[in-house]
Amino acid sequence: MTEYAVYLNDINKFDSLGGYWAEFRSAQAPPANHAEDAPGSNGFQRLYLGVEHCPHLLPGFGDIARASQLCRRGGLEFILVTPLCFEITRPQVEKTIEYYAELETAGEVVVNDWGIFEFLISNFKKLTPVIGRLLSRQKRLGQKMSLSEPEEKHFSTLPLTHPRIKQFLRNLGVRRLELDYEKNLDLSSESETKFRFSLYLPYSIVSVTRYCAAAYKKDSGWQNYAGCERNCRDNIIYLDNREFNQPLIARGCARYREQEPYSNHEGVDRLVFLPEIF
Question: Which fold has domain 3-203+259-273?
Answer without folding.
Answer: TIM Barrel (3.20.20)
